[in-house]
Amino acid sequence: MTLLHHLTGAPPGMTTRALMLRLAGIGAVLAGTAGTFTYAGGWLSPDALTPARVVDRFEQVNGPHPGFRRNHAKGLCVAGTFASNGAGARLSKASVFSAGRVTWVEGRVALAGGQPYAADAAATVRSLALRFRLPEGEEWRTGMNNIPVFPVRTPEAFYEQLLAAKPNPATGKPDFERLKAFFAVHPESAKAAALIKARTITSGFADSTFRSLNAFRFVASDGRTTSVRWAFVPERRPEPESAAQEAQADKNVLFDTLAVELRREPLHWHLIVTLGQASDATDDATLPWPADRETVDVGTLTLTGAAPEEADTCRDINFDPLVLPDGIAPSDDPLLSARSAAYARSFTRRAGEEKVPSAVAGTSPDGASL
Ligand code: HEM
User: Fold this and answer.
1) Which atom of ligand 1 is nearest to the CA of 346?
2) Which protein residue's CA is at the shortest distance from atom 33 of ligand 1?
3) Residue 61 located in a structural domain
4) Range of the domain at 2
5) Nearest CA to ligand 1 atom 34
6) Does pLDDT of 106 surpass 90?
């Protein structure tokens, strides 16, 4: 009797194909049970999806990488300033939008995924996380991605998708049938995935647009609130990634190029705030807002330098999207509290682990230290 026979309780004469079908049936039942368990009661209630389970799943999918962020594991620290032009002050009383205010900013550019030594593939989602230090101990922390919408609507869907998209070690690609099954129950994710796939992939970090994806609320000094999404749009004209670049052997090409560029000159992005209307979904990051919505350019981010992840740079920052100043409030998007809780759990785990150098702690392509 084979192990398969033993697992399925099948009689010894049963063929392998029949056995596989029986096993698939058992798997479906198990998955169904897990689903019931997961959905019972919603995020953070007993027996339901917890931050620890989300972080466990990152570890299950990516393997253990002690000391690193459980997602967006490969990154480089950046720093600079944000200069407000005053146009945001009518929308939000946050001091960061006062006319003429220049705020010191620390940040981190990264690639999505839990692999700290993965090669810089152009199609991997790029991120920019920022921490604005404001007067009177206030802070604004935000983490953004270079995609038009987020692939899932709820924390539960995020949890399922992590496993559904896990690459098969033999092929390096996700299992098609598993993904198909995920999209069948999450048609909103299938639509979002099509929008994400259709985006233009630019040549690097410096010409990428980074979006909040989640909606927030701006609160003005008269109490008026406006639903918003924001994006940091590069001053540099976006260039599509070239074929030569795609063939680049350097596995840190995106990070190293940014570091070299920042040594040469500062890089600028405009903070463009999109004003939502009553009909625009604030609780569903898979849905784009109509393209004709009013936008307001509220100021300029200037990045002036990059440095490897260390204790005194961005390594030990938790870019919790709910650390917000008075004047910026969360929306009803269920991803926000889930993100906040999962980032805290990831942070707590990595803070207690021994650190090894980041893959982008070395030298730039021209040999100079970053
Ligand atoms: C339920 C949904 C999500 C979960 C569970 C999740 C989970 C995580 C975790 C665990 C980390 C590592 C945090 C750390 O150790 O510091 C992370 C990092 C990050 N996530 Fe998410 N994420 C979610 C949705 C999003 C969304 C919607 C965005 C944004 C647009 C986003 C952007 C980022 C960024 C930019 C980082 C890197 C921050 C850094 O550089 O330190 N995530 N995410």
Assistant:
1) 15
2) 143
3) yes
4) 1-39
5) 143
6) yes
323 touches 338 (CB < 8 A): no
Contact 306, 370 (CB under 8 A): yes
The pLDDT of residue 242 is 74
pLDDT band at 370 (very low <50, low <70, confident <90, very high): very low
Atom of ligand 1 nearest to the CA of 154: 1
In this structure, are 5 and 72 located in the same domain? no
Report how many domains make up the chain: 2
In this structure, the answer to whether residues 20 and 145 fall within a common structural domain is: no
Structure token pair of residue 136: 């009177």
Q: Is 343 known to sit in a ligand binding site?
A: yes
Give residue-wise pLDDT tens across range 165-196.
998 888 888 999 999 999 999 999 999 999 99
Q: How confident is the model at residue 246 (pLDDT cuts 50, 70, 90)?
A: low
Residue 357 lies in a domain: no
Task: Tell me which of 6, 72, 186, 268 is the catalytic residue.
Answer: 72
28 and 154 share one domain: no
Q: Is 72 a residue of the active site?
A: yes
Ligand 1 atom 4: residue of nearest CA: 339
Nearest ligand 1 atom, CA 211: 30
Which 8-state DSSP code applies to residue 95?
A: G
CATH number at residue 160: 2.40.180.10
Q: Are 44 and 50 in contact (CB under 8 A)?
A: yes
| Polymer length in residues for the chain | 370
Distance from the CA of 143 to the center of ligand 1, in angstroms?
7
35 and 135 co-located in one domain = no
Q: Is 302 helix (H, G, I), strand (E, B) or coil?
A: strand
- Residue 119 pLDDT more than 80? yes
For 41-51, what is each residue's pLDDT tens digit? 345 555 589 99
